[in-house]
Amino acid sequence: MATSENVTLSDLHSPKEASITAFTTVLPALKHKLIYIRHQHDKHEPEYFRAVSSLSDNDLTSFTISDLEAVRVGSSAYGLHLFGKVGLPAAPGSYIHVRVFVAAEEGTDGASEEDRVAKLHCIHTEEVVKEDGDHVYRAIFKKDDPLEWFDT
């Protein structure tokens, strides 16, 4: 299993053509999943999406591929792990962090871009337990928040 211990991510950089292609492929799934997790979290812990609570689902998902501002990429035996920072135009200064997995299409070696398949792995949701035991939840990040390895 790929983890932050065995996959080294590149430095944060502007998206290149391969990253743009991968994110373009997963964009419909990303928007669908973002609305889904927002509704699920709103039932139990609305703090995750409090920063954008005034936005409609349509406004929340109004981003396009041009809102993919930065990426980090890591390689493992399984494929490429692509982490992206996507700006939310309807909430300036707000971002989601997204993880995409790119692997060889079944029956190919994945050597060319045409032989690779990109799939949405997850959208980052964070739960931090403070020293006093209080929990802080968020799925919306700021520009200066680091884009680091995440599994959820």
Short description:
It is built from 2 helices and 7 strands, in the order ααβββββββ. It has helices at 17-44, 57-60; strands spanning 68-76, 79-87, 94-104, 116-123, 126-129, 135-138, 141-142. Strand 2 (79-87) and strand 3 form a beta hairpin.
Task: Give me the secondary-structure topology.
Layout: H1 17-44, H2 57-60, E1 68-76, E2 79-87, E3 94-104, E4 116-123, E5 126-129, E6 135-138, E7 141-142
Antiparallel strand pairs: 1-2, 2-3, 3-4, 3-7, 5-6
Describe this structure in words.
Strand 2 and strand 3 form a beta hairpin. This protein has one domain. It has two helices and seven strands, in the order ααβββββββ. Strands 1, 2, 3, 4 and 7 form a five-stranded antiparallel sheet that branches. The protein has a two-stranded antiparallel sheet with strand order 5-6. It is 21% helix and 31% strand. The protein has 152 residues and is of the alpha+beta class. It is globular and about 45 Å long. It has helices spanning 17-44, 57-60; strands at 68-76, 79-87, 94-104, 116-123, 126-129, 135-138, 141-142.
